[in-house]
Amino acid sequence: MTTESKPKLWTPGDWNAFFGFGTNILVNLLVLSGLLRFVLKMPDNIVFGRILPATGLMMCLSTLYYARLAYNLAKKTGRTDVCALPSGISVPHMFVVVFVIMLPIALKTGDPIKGWEAGLCWVFVQSFVLMAGGFIAPIIRKITPRAALLGTLAGVSISFISMRPALEMFMTPVIGLVCFTIILASWFGGVRYFKGIPAGLVAIAAGSLIAWGSTALGYNFGGMTGAGLKASFSNFGFSIPIPAFNHVFSGFQFLGTILVTAIPFGIYDLVEALDNVESAAVAGDSFPTTRVLTADGVVSLIGCCMGNPFINAVYIGHPGWKSMGGRIGYSAATGIAVIVMAWFGVISVMVSLIPVVAISPILLYIGMLIGSQAFQESPKSHAPAIVLALTPHLAAWGKLMIDNALGAAGTNAHAVGMDKLGQVGVLYHGLEVMGGGAILGGLMLGAIGAFIIDRAFAKAAAFAAAAGVLSFFGFMHGEAIGIGQSPLVTIAYLGCAAVLFGCAKFATVTAREPEHEHEEAHVGAVAAE
Fold it and tell me: N or C: which end of the chain has fewer CB within 10 A?
């Protein structure tokens, strides 16, 4: 065996991986387009003329780069079974940037373009976190309980990812519930559809069939019209990405809101990338971690500067694509296919063929998956801490619903009066304080809770003190970053830190009951992955 032999760029197994991975990417692009058009109310000329061409460029650069890394590894080792890392838009963060950053700012300003600019600034910050934070992520991961890291992400998934699609499904149940059942039967129930067609594609096809069939019968369940389909061809053309530096820097006016989420989620991206690179290594393909993290940051920055408000990430699932025969070519071919669809407006036509409610079950599934992960991959005893980590996000979601409802009536909570709202059980000020900076709030509360459960009171005290500092500067429990933003909350957290430190030094503590044997085995298996 020689290490100088040229690796094959394409093998028969690449076809299987290309169609499987390509379908996954296509579904994500359809979901993304739906979020931009129907949630953010973004104009079609921005969606199909600016954002998607930039997204296509970013994803093409990413998949070509990881194909190159795989080629180099195959050439160096002389192996023929090297599989490229899968990559694309980070799905959890796609919803986070839309619902936590872009939508609130678009609603507050009444301008979806401002929401887009805030999303660009969010990715700009995250790109540098990814590039520079490789040294920080292992430390954060080491000192923070998994229940806190995953618990705050679960809070986002339940409140800001799951609720809207769930409501949309029950507004149009004939399509929504049928598509949801198709997805659950496959992705949770293990059902394999005809010739291995991906469940997401089956659900979208079934939803489209029901929608267009009902339109033909005069019921119009999915809101599909021939006029809408005809209009979509107006976006069918050739659009290349153009620099969007002015929009990126316009988003810096929302930097206070952006930093509260961009930094912790940048760290989460680092941890997720480390996990996925480790997963590939276990499958036999060891890629340089530093290059992977740097590549995610660089291609995200390029995409951002060209108008794409979504972060790039290495996907989980490398062993799966490798097992079905994927090698080097499937990654590069997917990137080329994406750039063709994005630059020629093909996605515009596909969005007009597919009802939004057929995509909603996929969003709910993602929310279910992320939310359940916190409980499944943390010790059972930490479940109360996970619930605690959820609460700031529920508060933030509740406040957003109240603000939107009152805004539609031409008023706001302060005009109505806190006393009047309190008399009908709406504790608006509590939602406002608890929900401010919910990402960090959930992380810190979850960590404090987990350490108390573990009887690690000194560590809990340290996190409580850190929460006080973060609150003082507005990263938590506040609406903006500054000095002395939430003084009462700061004092409260410092008081908690004092109590916990006292417990660590002077209290008599009962021993914690041991975990059940099956739970210990589960946690050990997760740690070994």
Answer: N
206 and 226 housed in the same domain: yes
- Asked if 302 and 405 sit in the same domain, the reply is no
Tell me how far apart the alpha carbons of residues 101 and 262 are, in angstroms, rounded to a whole number. Answer: 10
Q: Residues 153-180, buried b or exposed e (16+ Cβ, 10 A)?
A: bbbbbbbbbbbbbbebbeebeebbebbb
Asked if 42 and 116 touch (Cβ cutoff 8 Å), the reply is yes
> pLDDT at position 528, please?
32
Q: Quick one: 197 and 101 in the same domain?
A: yes
Q: List C-alpha distances in Å: 62 to 23, 169, 254.
A: 17, 34, 28
DSSP class of 482: S
User: In terms of domains, do 441 and 483 share one?
Assistant: yes
DSSP string spanning 349-377?
Answer: HHHHHS-HHHHHHHHHHHHHHHHHHHHHT
In this structure, the answer to whether residues 326 and 407 fall within a common structural domain is no
Q: Which letter does DSSP use for residue 147 in this model?
A: H
Copy the structure tokens of residue 239. Answer: 């659009």
Expressed as residue numbers, the domain containing 105 is 12-375
Reported as a single tens digit per residue, the pLDDT across 332-347 is 999 999 999 999 888 8
Per residue in 167-189, pLDDT tens? Answer: 989 999 999 999 999 989 987 88
Question: Is residue 355 domain-shared with residue 251, that is, in the same domain?
Answer: yes
HSE, side-chain direction, 13 A CA sphere, residue 354 = 26
Is the residue at 20 inside a domain? Answer: yes
Q: Out of 375, 398, 413, pick the residue that ends a domain.
A: 375
Pair 395, 481 in one domain = yes
* Average confidence (pLDDT) over 54-72: 95
Q: Is 505 found in the same domain as 370? A: no
CA separation, residue 195 to residues 12, 19, 192 (Å): 17, 12, 8
Beta bridge partners of 238: none
Average confidence (pLDDT) over 398-418: 88
Calpha distance 198→221 (Å, rounded): 24
Structural domain includes residue 137: yes
Q: Which residues contact 240 (CB under 8 A, 6 or more apart)?
A: 53, 343
User: How many structural domains does the chain have?
Assistant: 2
Chain-centroid distance of CA 526 in Å reads: 21
